[in-house]
């Protein structure tokens, strides 16, 4: 039997929720899926003919590798997405935001070095970092309700996590699943902390177009931060609702760009057809984003309308993104909540521990879910207590 690396914990056994879900589906049970995060499966109207036509560029028949990405695609991201605020010479294309993380980790960290990531947050960080032999250390986000901007960074706790092996702080802006943005009042202290400890800042901005208000206290992007090495990540998956097209990008500090380009040149992973189609695909994003935002607002408004002041359920405040977080009555664990909702009520939700919430009991619901499914699922959930 071959000896496998220790980068990942190779325990591939499904968890209890996955096993129950497989059983229910095998039995033909109807399931209201409130975890849907794939926009192409959520009933939105795409300009199919135009998208397919954009992929028919005959230039894609000839291989002309460009390590940082084809110039026309980088220019389109610069002009069409960033409205000219970011020079195309700072934009490097990747096959996904996940690959963008891998490139930046390779650039900044040696094996055994550390990156700081927020808690709660998307669980993919552990896998991405481990595959580059980098250690993840969590720092806390603190929930304040409707006061002080819902969620904020615990700077004292963040400072305590920094060691001689720390190389970067990861910021997910807005966070997934909390939907919290970095606040203007937090930006200065965050930059100062990075300067003091010679750290880079990695800002994941894939959901930045999905703010739920025009609040000016929210930092929408860190692309103009120049005081420290900063890497801003985004891509078509969320920007244009096209996860299948596998095009992401990094807006990088000028002093780091040549090194990052060398890493990209080693892989040359981004396909020519999607790069050539990028200007057209970015042009379709506004209508799709509007559809998504209408769905997100409608589902959240329905959820708010169903939770009265005397309800044992609590809806956490959010500022953007595609999720809603329900705090459940603590009459059973999160795991028992999600298992019983699926087994008894036919409703699929995600538990907070998937995202490393520091306490229980939280349920994470996707606001991308079609409205009729979402509303019926919510009614069943709230009827449980």
The CATH architecture of the largest domain can be given as 3-Layer(aba) Sandwich
Please work out how many helical segments DSSP would assign.
13
| Overall geometric form | globular
Structural class: alpha/beta
Q: β content, as a range?
A: 15-25%
CATH level 1 name of the largest domain: Alpha Beta
Which residues sit in consecutive blocks of at least 5 with pLDDT less than 50? none
CATH topology of the largest domain: Aspartate Aminotransferase, domain 2
Q: What's the domain count? A: 2
Describe this structure as you would to a colleague.
The protein is α/β, with parallel strands linked by helices. The protein has two domains: 16-45 and 286-382, Aspartate Aminotransferase, domain 1; 61-283, Aspartate Aminotransferase, domain 2 (3-Layer(aba) Sandwich). It contains 13 helices and 14 strands. It has an eight-stranded mixed beta sheet, sandwiched between helices. The protein has a four-stranded antiparallel beta sheet with strand order 10-11-14-13, covered by helices on one side. The longest helix is centred in the C-terminal third of the chain and has 22 residues, at 285-306. It starts with 15 loop residues before the first helix and ends with a helix.
């Amino acid at each position: 039997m071959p000896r496998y690396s220790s980068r990942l914990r190779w325990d591939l056994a499904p968890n209890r929720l996955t096993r129950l879900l497989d059983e229910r589906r095998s039995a033909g049970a109807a399931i209201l899926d409130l975890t849907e995060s794939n926009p192409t499966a959520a009933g939105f109207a795409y300009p199919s003919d135009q998208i397919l036509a954009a992929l028919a560029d005959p230039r894609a028949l000839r291989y002309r590798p460009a390590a940082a990405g084809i110039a026309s695609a980088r220019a389109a991201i610069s002009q069409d997405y960033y409205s000219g605020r970011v020079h195309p010479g700072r934009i490097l294309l990747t096959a996904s935001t996940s690959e963008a993380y891998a490139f930046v980790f390779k650039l900044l960290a040696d094996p055994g070095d550390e990156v700081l990531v927020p808690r709660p947050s998307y669980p993919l960080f552990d896998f991405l970092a481990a595959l580059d032999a980098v250690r993840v250390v969590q720092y806390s986000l603190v929930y304040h309700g409707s006061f002080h901007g819902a969620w904020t960074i615990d700077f004292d706790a963040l400072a305590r996590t920094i060691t001689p092996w720390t190389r970067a702080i990861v910021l997910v802006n807005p966070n997934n699943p909390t939907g919290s943005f970095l606040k203007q009042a937090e930006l200065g202290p965050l930059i100062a902390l990075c300067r003091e400890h010679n750290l880079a800042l990695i800002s994941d901005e894939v959901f930045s177009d999905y703010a739920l208000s025009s609040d000016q206290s929210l930092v929408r992007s860190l692309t103009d931060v120049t005081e420290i090495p900063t890497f801003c990540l985004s891509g078509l998956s969320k920007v244009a609702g096209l996860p299948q097209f596998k095009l992401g990008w990094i807006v990088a500090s000028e002093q780091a760009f040549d090194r990052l380009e060398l890493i990209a040149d080693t892989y040359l992973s981004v396909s020519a057809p999607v790069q050539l189609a990028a200007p057209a695909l970015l042009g379709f994003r506004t209508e799709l984003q509007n559809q998504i935002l209408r769905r997100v607002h409608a589902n959240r408004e329905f959820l708010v309308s169903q939770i009265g002041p005397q309800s044992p359920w609590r809806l956490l405040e959010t500022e953007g993104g595609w999720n809603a977080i329900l705090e459940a009555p603590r009459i059973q664990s999160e795991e028992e909540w999600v298992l019983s909702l699926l087994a008894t009520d036919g409703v699929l939700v995600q538990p907070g521990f998937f995202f490393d919430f520091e306490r229980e009991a939280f349920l994470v619901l996707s606001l991308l879910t079609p409205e009729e499914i979402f509303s019926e699922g919510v009614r069943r959930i709230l009827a449980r207590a």
